[in-house]
């Protein structure tokens, strides 16, 4: 059901030190890192794939920062159905369903906001690039 989960951190360096240390005790390591021009970054932890992500958030989000939750989908059609169902309920689309080769070659996902403003995704890891 759950593919991966992510939280936003006020101090990514402090959070990285914390999660590098505590997750190592559970056998997990830092597996992937992304950064952008604005100094935002994301770090993925896991054992075989990044299941838990931390990222820097914008200072203007206030105390209730959004979280990211990705649900597993069996195929691209299900990802599209997930987004269509959310839109039918009035959800904002963050990213239309598509391939995300920057994540990996077979990553197909669609992202929406839930009623509380969280970034919710459906993702399939078995879709060949178009």
Could you tell me the CATH topology label: 2,3-Dihydroxybiphenyl 1,2-Dioxygenase, domain 1
Q: What number is the mean pLDDT?
A: 87
Poorly predicted runs are none
Strands, total number: 8
- Cα-atom radius of gyration: 15 Å
What is the end-to-end distance? 26 Å
Order of helices and strands: EHEEEEHEEE
Oligomer: single chain
Assign the CATH architecture.
Roll
The helical percent reads 10-25%
Number of helices: 2
Describe this structure in words.
With 130 residues, the protein is α+β, with helices and mostly antiparallel strands. The chain has one domain (2-124): 2,3-Dihydroxybiphenyl 1,2-Dioxygenase, domain 1. The protein is built from two helices and eight strands, in the order βαββββαβββ. The protein has helices spanning 12-24, 76-88, and strands spanning 2-9, 29-35, 41-46, 50-56, 68-72, 93-99, 108-113, 119-124. An eight-stranded mixed β-sheet has the order 2-3-4-1-5-8-7-6, covered by helices on one side. Strand 3 (41-46) and strand 4 form a beta hairpin. The mean pLDDT is 87. Residues 1-125 form the VOC domain. It holds the Pfam family Glyoxalase. This is VOC family protein. It comes from Nocardioides marmoriginsengisoli. InterPro entries: Glyas_Bleomycin-R_OHBP_Dase (IPR029068), Glyas_Fos-R_dOase_dom (IPR004360), VOC_core (IPR037523).
Task: Kindly list the characteristics that best describe this protein.
130 residues; alpha+beta; 2,3-Dihydroxybiphenyl 1,2-Dioxygenase, domain 1; eight-stranded mixed sheet; 2 helices; VOC_core
Task: Please provide a brief summary of the model.
With 130 residues, the chain is α+β, with helices and mostly antiparallel strands. The protein has two helices and eight strands; from the N terminus they run βαββββαβββ.
């Amino acid at each position: 059901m759950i593919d991966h989960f992510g939280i936003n951190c006020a101090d990514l360096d402090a959070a990285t030190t914390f999660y590098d240390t505590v997750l190592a005790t559970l056998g997990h390591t830092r597996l992937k890192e992304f950064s952008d021009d604005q100094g935002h970054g994301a770090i993925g932890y896991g054992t075989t794939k990044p299941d838990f992500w931390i990222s820097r958030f914008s200072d203007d989000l206030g105390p209730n920062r959004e979280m990211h939750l990705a649900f597993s989908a069996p195929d691209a059609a299900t990802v599209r159905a997930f987004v269509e169902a959310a839109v039918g309920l009035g959800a904002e689309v963050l990213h239309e369903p598509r391939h995300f080769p920057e994540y990996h070659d077979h990553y197909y996902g669609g992202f929406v906001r839930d009623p509380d403003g969280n970034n919710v995704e459906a993702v399939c890891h078995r879709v060949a690039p178009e």
